[in-house]
Amino acid sequence: MLDEFQAREARDVEARKHAAEEEADLREAFRLMMETAEGKRVVFWLLGRAGLYANAFDAGSEAAERYRLGRQSLGLEILQKLDLVDARLYPRLLLERGEARELERAARVAGGKPSEDGEYA
User: Fold this and answer.
1) Helix (H/G/I), strand (E/B), else coil: 48
2) Are 82 and 34 in contact (CB under 8 A)?
3) Could you give the angle at the alpha carbon of 78 between the alpha carbons of 72 and 80, nearest 5°?
4) Of 3, 74, 85, 98, which has the fewest beta carbons less than 10 angstroms from its beta carbon?
5) Is residue 118 part of a domain?
6) How distant, in Å, are the alpha carbons of 42, 84, 94 from that of 98?
7) Cα angle at 89 between 23 and 37, to 5 degrees?
């Protein structure tokens, strides 16, 4: 009986150790991904597809509402992982995206082309 308990305990310890190693590897992969422009672009796309800032409520369809809530849940998991790596990653990503949009707008204005909403300034 004691041997069975010790064996189970040893398996549990090994499983926790393996899970901790997997988590550390995943955090490192997220960190490396966020060091590249391509990685940031993918993360921003994924978070956009998750609809984090969209209202999930749908009075006409409970199924559609649950679907959107599921997508948002995955987006929140991504944000939580980024936060574990470095709490500054997502705010920096938003700032970089905003700066890029502002540069694009300024270039359109300088070139005399209207912006997406049809205005020049």
Assistant:
1) helix
2) yes
3) 100
4) 3
5) no
6) 16, 23, 6
7) 100
Quote the tokens at residue 8. Answer: 């189970």
Nearest to 90 by CA among 40, 15, 45, 54: 40
Nearest residue to 79 (alpha-carbon basis) of 67, 68, 92: 92
Q: What's the whole-model pTM score?
A: 0.76
- DSSP-derived secondary structure letter, 68: H
List of E strands, 1-121: none
The per-residue DSSP string of 87-112 comes to: TTHHHHHHHHHHHHHHHHHHHHHHTT
Identify which of 83, 75, 70 has the alpha carbon closest to the alpha carbon of residue 49.
Answer: 75
For 75-108, how does the pLDDT look when each residue is reduced to its tens digit (9 = 90+)? 999 999 999 999 999 999 999 999 999 999 999 9
Asked, for residue 62, whether it belongs to a domain, the answer is yes
Model confidence at 112: pLDDT above 80? no
Report if residue 95 sits inside a domain.
yes
> Which structural domain range is residue 53 located in?
34-110
Domain count across the chain? 1
